[in-house]
Write a sequence for this structure.
């Protein structure tokens, strides 16, 4: 930006000096040089070699400074649009936030033409402004600002290992049925670049992104899950049925978590002794009875199932968890509140999803604490026993 | 000359051993009634509580929770091991 302004200022200065010198030789030539775009060439030739009226160095200066200004302007445009990786991340964010784009708009956003990208962003912005208040983070007034606004939360999430505060969003009052009707079912590979994770959604399952999951939670009066990445539901289950079970995919960006040998009995002793549990993973509202499946760590995947008795009731349920460890945090798959008789289904499902999830290169779990980056303020054992 | 005695059939010998082992196991678990125990299940589950009853069909634990105490029964067929804590 600075370079562009300096270039423009120098170019203006040289042009004015050029007009002044020509004006001194001839008022008519001066006026014509000022008003006609390329008349300075005539004046330059006409007064070539005259010590008081020669303008060749001023023309050269104007051209050089104009070149600097042009170079500065192209840099500003490319910086505003971001690198191809940033634009890819922005498009992914828009998709995650449920913003609908045509393939042409998406191609323009990812293309090398800043003007086309800005135009596509402006169109999407207008489309969003006209919509009924979708809650994606997409509210800037022009294309370039939109691009950076969309990229910002992702960068923050990636760089800041602490949970990202959920931005204030306009409350959208929907019935559960309407929220379920609006949800978009994703299949195949689901990638979150900000987290650095791929989830290969099994063929019989569908993934609902965080925006749709949030709407569904809100419609049932539940608080928003700041760690939620989405829901994964079996194709045979109806999302419109509020009692249908689903898997919660969650990301804990707390840093690298240390592991150690896990002894089921010792962990249960510790969990039962902890009278003020602070669960990091999703749990049913109730008290822990025991481990229906004791915690076991296979490679970088930890899984276990808790049996719980619900508050003010003798009903018992199981909560199934599978955790994939990553360099900057842990990816959680949880099913909560399942009937005890469905334990096998529950546990196999979360294990399957954890097995289908993988971190992108450089984001995988290193067995030893990495030299750079934060370490989580808890261990794997504390995660299991809900201690902090 | 008397013919050598035929060796006892292994299956016939094993049957009383199995019964005896089951009886011993029942006796071992029954001896832990009133004690704090850890029960491990065949599905790799773990429960800890005070053993209040043990029969051939089920064992019952008294599990202290934060707000109450819960009587929790486990089918005997699911139990892999019971150890005193």
């Amino acid at each position: 930006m600075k370079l562009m302004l300096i270039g423009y200022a120098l170019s203006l200065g040289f042009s004015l000096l050029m007009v002044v010198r020509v004006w001194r030789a001839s008022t008519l030539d001066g006026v014509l040089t000022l008003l006609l775009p390329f008349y300075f060439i005539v004046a330059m030739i006409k007064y070539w070699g005259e010590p008081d009226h020669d303008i060749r160095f001023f023309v050269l200066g104007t051209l050089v400074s104009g070149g600097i200004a042009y170079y500065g302007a192209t840099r500003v445009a490319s910086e505003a649009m971001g690198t191809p990786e940033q634009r890819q991340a922005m498009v992914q964010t828009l998709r995650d936030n449920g913003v609908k784009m045509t393939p042409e708009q998406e191609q323009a956003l990812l293309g090398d033409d800043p003007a086309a990208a800005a135009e596509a962003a402006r169109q999407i912005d207008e489309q969003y402004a006209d919509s009924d208040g979708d809650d994606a983070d997409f509210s800037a007034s022009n294309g370039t600002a939109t691009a950076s606004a969309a990229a910002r939360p992702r960068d923050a999430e990636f760089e800041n290992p602490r949970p990202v505060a959920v931005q204030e969003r306009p409350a959208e009052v929907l019935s559960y049925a309407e929220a379920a009707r609006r949800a978009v079912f994703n299949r195949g590979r689901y990638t979150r670049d900000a987290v650095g994770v791929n989830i290969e959604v099994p063929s019989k399952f569908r993934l609902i992104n965080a925006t749709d999951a949030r709407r569904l939670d809100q419609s049932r009066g539940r608080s928003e899950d700041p760690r939620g990445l989405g829901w994964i539901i079996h194709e045979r289950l109806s999302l419109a049925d509020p009692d249908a079970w689903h898997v919660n995919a969650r990301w804990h960006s707390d840093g690298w978590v240390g592991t150690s040998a896990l002894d089921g009995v010792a962990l249960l002793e510790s969990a039962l002794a902890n009278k003020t549990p602070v669960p990091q993973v999703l749990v049913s509202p109730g008290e822990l009875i025991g481990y229906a499946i004791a915690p076991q760590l296979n490679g970088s995947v930890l899984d276990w199932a808790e049996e719980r008795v619900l508050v003010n009731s003798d009903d018992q349920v199981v909560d199934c968890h599978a955790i994939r460890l990553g360099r900057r945090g842990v990816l959680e798959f949880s099913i909560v509140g399942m009937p005890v008789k469905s334990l096998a289904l529950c546990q196999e499902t979360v294990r399957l999803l954890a097995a289908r999830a993988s971190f992108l290169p450089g984001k995988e779990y290193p067995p030893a604490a990495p030299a750079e980056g934060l370490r989580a303020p808890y261990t794997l054992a504390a995660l299991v026993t809900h201690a902090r | 000359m008397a013919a050598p005695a035929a060796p006892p059939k292994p299956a016939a010998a094993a049957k009383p051993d199995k019964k005896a082992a089951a009886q011993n196991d029942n006796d071992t678990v029954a001896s832990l009634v009133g004690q704090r125990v850890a029960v491990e299940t065949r599905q790799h589950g773990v429960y800890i509580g005070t053993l209040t009853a043990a029969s051939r069909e089920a064992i019952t634990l008294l599990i202290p929770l934060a707000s109450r105490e819960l009587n929790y029964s486990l089918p005997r067929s699911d139990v892999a091991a019971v150890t005193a804590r």
User: Anything to note?
Assistant: Chain A is about 45% helix and 20% strand. Chain A touches chain B through 19 residues (CB under 8 Å). The CA atoms of residues 82 and 148 of chain A lie 8 Å apart.
